[in-house]
Amino acid sequence: MRGYGPGGKLMDKDLTRYKADGFKETGGECVNCHMPQTVYMQRHARHDHGFTIPDPLLTKEYGVPNACNRCHQDKGADWALAQVDKWYGKLMDRPTRQRARLLAEARAGNSAAVEPLLKILARETNAYWKAALINVLPPWSSQPQVDAVLRQSLSDRDALVREKAARALDGSAENLTAPTAAALRTRLEDPVRSVRIAAAWTLRTNLDTNSRAARDLDLFLDVNADQPGGQLQKGEFFVARGEAQEALEHYRKAVTWDPASAAIRHDLAVLYGLLNQNQQALEQMREAVRLEPREAEYHYSLALALNDAGDLNKAIAELQEATRLNPQYADAWRNLGLAQAAKEDLAGALEALTRAEKTDS
Questions:
Q1: Best exposed site among 11, 213, 269, 303 by fewest CB in 10 Å?
Q2: What is the model's pLDDT at position 312?
């Protein structure tokens, strides 16, 4: 908040303007501006320890909350943006704004954000920000430049960074390069248990179940097995080991415990597909889409299930919806093109396949 002098005290010359503008003095305190409170579990208000800078422009662009409008709830983001532009001007266009934009784009699946994110990661010194940047890289972990950065991060001096790097490599676990696989195996003997567990999880397909890391992972899975997510993770472990029938018990239990979870129903549908139980897969995917109709991945998976059931027209409709919700969804574009080609819609197929190629480049 403008007008603060040494020690965070409001300077006398600005006090009159400050009150005239209608600001509450508690809202102008450092802690309430840079560490706003969020209510967790409907009852526990906790301060954000990021000590971030409120930026209404990010609210307009990506829906990121800002402390200005948390206090001035009768005003909109445009008003808040006009105020900060008036006070700070170009000072607001700082590296933290660009980092936030790139993180938002990466979470939205925009591959164009990867290269600049890697540049930021290369010069970042804060372990927590390193971990946050690595956390959005899994969709591109098989790309050579990302693979190299994650491999290097496995040797970071901070355990949080090593753990996130090991987790991020799970996305390309079946196609790890030899150097990266070797570096990941060294993390099975990491002095920090969370890192060993992360490495064991990524290497779970061929993990020696008698190893120390495997025992750590087994205990971790058991400790969390009283929750739906824990049951799902146990199921994922058995799927990776080629024991799909054993996994089915855990997936079904997870759905029973949390029937409103679209994510769990989606994963159960995928498992049914592996077991060639296509009708059950279709039922679960329809329910997942009903629960979360704006999730592109669920429409994509429903399209695959519909195709397996022989309903190509409905499959095309779901693929079109997936690409509408996420224009960067290369696999959805690709399958849409193939489905349209099968319907002899060559113009539509060419357009979709071209979009797939551009999106995947």
A1: 11
A2: 96
Q: Are 166 and 187 in contact (CB under 8 A)?
A: yes
The percent of residues above 70 in pLDDT, for the chain, comes to: 92
The DSSP call for residue 293 is T
Report the amino acid identity of residue 161: V
Closest CA to 282 of 296, 264, 268, 297: 268
> With 50 as the cut, is the pLDDT of residue 264 above it?
yes
Question: Which residue matches tokens 């060639």?
Answer: 276
Residue 39 pairs with which residues in a beta bridge?
45
* Radius of gyration, CA atoms only, the chain: 24
CA angle, 235 then 237 then 241, to 5°: 115
- Asked if the model's pLDDT at residue 67 lies above 50, the reply is yes
Neighbours of 354 (CB within 10 A): 12
Taking the model in full, what pTM does it have? 0.78
- Residues comprising the chain, all counted: 361
Average pLDDT of the chain is 90
Q: At residue 48, does pLDDT exceed 50?
A: yes
What pLDDT is recorded for position 109? 86
The answer to whether residues 134 and 154 touch, using CB atoms and an 8 Å cutoff, is: no
Q: Write the burial class of residue 341 (CB in 10 Å: 0-12 exposed, 13-18 middle, 19+ buried).
A: middle
Three-state DSSP at 84 gives helix
Q: Which residues pair with 157 in a beta bridge?
A: none
